Amino acid sequence: DGGITQSPKYLFRKEGQNVTLSCEQNLNHDAMYWYRQDPGQGLRLIYYSQIVNDFQKGDIAEGYSVSREKKESFPLTVTSAQKNPTAFYLCASKTGGLGEQETQYFGPGTRLLVL
Amino acid sequence: RKEVEQDPGPFNVPEGATVAFNCTYSNSASQSFFWYRQDCRKEPKLLMSVYSSGNEDGRFTAQLNRASQYISLLIRDSKLSDSATYLCVVNAIAGGTSYGKLTFGQGTILTVHP
Questions:
Q1: Distance from B49 to chain A by nearest Cα, in Å?
Q2: pLDDT of residue B106
Q3: Residue A99's pLDDT is what?
C-alpha cells in the first residue's frame, strides 16, 4: 500500500524532554511538511523540505528541529525549548509542480501530550 | 487580517438540505485552491481542487472568484456522512514563489442531523 505513516499515534512527553515524531512515505514524493493543529484552529506549518538534505523553517519553527537524510523520511523533534507542545502533529507530502500538484497528502497524525 | 478566513460555524442542517460555505483569502497572487475535509481526530483529506471556471463533483460544487478573492463550497442533498470540518486551503505565495506551501483556514464545522 502506498501512503504516509506516522508513529506513534499518541506520545507523552515529560517536562524538559526531547521527543521525536516519525513520518515515512512510500509515494516517491519530493516534498514533505510538518504541521501543528490546536483545537479549533487551522494547521500551522512548522518545517518543510522540498528535497533530500534540504529543509526550511515554516511559520512556527521555534522549539522544533527536523532532518531529511532520506527521501522517504522526515522526522520531527520537539525539543524542551517548545513550551507548549501539546497538539496534533500532521505530516504531509506532495510531488513537485504547481496547480493540482500542489495537493498535499497527510499521514494519520500524532497526538503529543505533556505530562 | 488572516490569510485565509472561514466562518467557523457550526452549521447544523437536516439530511437533504443544501449548505454553502464561504472562504476569503488575502493574497491576490495565490494560484491554487482546495477544499479539504477533516473528520474528528483524523487527518485532513482532499475533497476537491477549485478551478477558475468552477467545478462539480457529484453533490459538491466549488466556485472561485478571483476578483473578490472568494471561494465557496456548496453541498447538495446533505448526508449524515457529510458531517465533518471543511478546510479552505490556498497556496501561500512569497516573493512570487509558492515553495509548495499551503495556508489553511481554521475550518467550518458541519453537522448533518436526521
A1: 7
A2: 92
A3: 59
